[in-house]
Amino acid sequence: MNKISLSKSSYCNGVQCEKILWLNKYKPEFSAAEINESILENGKKVGELAKRLFGDYEDVPFDKNRFVMKEKTDKLLQEKPNIITEASFIYDNNFCSVDILKNDLDGVEIYEVKSSTKIKDIYIDDIAFQYFILSNLGFNVKKAAIVYINNEYIRGEELEINQLFKIEDVTNIVREKQAEISNNIDFINSFMESHGEDSEPDKELGNYCFDPYSCAFWQYCTRNLPKPNVFDVSGMFTSKKFEKYYEGKISFEDLENEDINKKFLEQIDFELNNREAKIEKNAINDLLDSLKYPLYFIDYETCQYAIPEYEGTKAYQQIPFQYSLHIIKEEGAPLEHKEFLAEFDDENIIRNFAESMIKDMPEDGSVIVYNKGFESGRNRDIGKMYPDLKEEMERINGNMVDFMVPFRNRDYYTKEMKGSYSIKYVLPALYPDEPELDYINLELVHNGGEASNAFLNLKGKEPEEQKRIREALLEYCKLDTYAMVKIWEKFIEVTKG
């Protein structure tokens, strides 16, 4: 058998779904994979920091030629005892780089570093593959362990890496999986040999399309399904979607008489029968009657650091770095706008965010948000970090009104919302002919994920590029709060009469 070259990542892809390997080889142009720079950067930073866990180390630099990395590793292995990072090995056309290798006199220990806060099954497959290669090369692998993030650790003035990282010994589990690893490798090689470029394999859709990772070829593999279909039902559990799919209930026509949640049926009904907008005027009037001037329409943008950057924060804590605020001081008053966008190197980013917000919202008017749980949660975090600001944060939270509620409750629903109450669906549904309200027309930043990535990647950019990105962040966040103003206007319009 002409064996393919398997790495840790390609082996794990094959474990998830062997067709991923075939598509990556023969139809890569259909991949919808997106490069998330902040996730890659987080992973890189975590990996580099973890290398220091056991003291001094020798690193094997990355090289496209795997044999160059192997030869460098072979030389370093002679210097035991030592610590080698990215130690690289090849066995029977299978390749792996071990994140951290403890090279002792009586054997080795292998450590796989993950930027996650918990251990997933696929991580065990990853390190078991490494164990398979090293043990077959004759190494005495004394220990196999996963290094991952402790998100309960609160950073002090200095970062303590031994507190930031958890290390879990998985040696026994890994050893028990060795026969499975061998069988999987044989299966993958046999599969790839029997399916050439003109022999696309049949593979049924399944939960593995999303677990442990969302497959980049989902759109390709579902290209022949009717549109819309069961996978377009908003809010339905993935497992339930597959249950219906396996029953042959795939199109909306197949689903319209099924015994499923009434909100799912409503989305299907509106789509199939092109229903007019559903507007519960009493519910919307109750919301409008609860508002008190001045009206503060506010939206936060946040980012997350795998390695906590600021004293008093945890790994992956939501760090607010920006807000947009539209204000109507009294009935008939003109619309005002205020905003805050932190400098990327601001060490007091959270406090400066909070103090600016308090200054911009001094009165007890209605604080209008879209998804109250998010903004109020950040305010509680601020109150815990800065007890002197807690009373003000509680005041702001006590005045919050959530404009998402009428859409989540389906008091206001149209076909164009496609079952979703995300503002990215709601706004164009309410204002289909106003391009200035369409997030697609924004430059660089179109959603919260892109906003977070843009801010995290400001460091190292040229001043002109930084300016361009900051302007895009301000425009994006401004649209989020202007959108709420427009929703408020629409509420007033549809409840008249």
Task: Describe what this molecule looks like in 3D.
- The chain starts with 7 loop residues before the first helix and ends with a helix.
- Helix content is 43%, strand content 16%.
- It is built from 20 helices and 13 strands.
- It is globular and about 80 Å long.
- The protein has helices at residues 8-16, 18-26, 37-50, 66-77, 121-136, 161-164, 171-176, 178-194, 218-221, 238-246, 252-255, 262-273, 281-289, 349-360, 372-385, 390-398, 405-408, 423-430, 448-456, 463-494; strands at 58-59, 82-91, 94-104, 107-113, 141-149, 165-169, 278-279, 295-303, 319-328, 336-341, 366-369, 400-402, 412-413.
- The mean pLDDT is 95.
Q: What is the general shape?
A: globular
What is the assigned CATH homologous superfamily of the largest domain?
Ribonuclease H-like superfamily/Ribonuclease H
Proper CATH architecture of the largest domain: 2-Layer Sandwich
Supply Rg.
27 Å
> In terms of structural class, how would the helical and strand content be classed?
alpha/beta
In total, the number of strands is 13
Give the termini distance in whole angstroms: 77 Å
Estimate percent helicity. 40-55%
CATH class of the largest domain: Alpha Beta
In round numbers, the mean pLDDT is 95
Measured by DSSP, the beta-strand proportion falls in: 15-25%
Instruction: Please state how the strands of the largest beta sheet are arranged side by side.
Output: 1-2-3-4-5-6
Give the domain tally: 3
Short structural description:
By secondary structure, the protein is α/β, with parallel strands linked by helices.
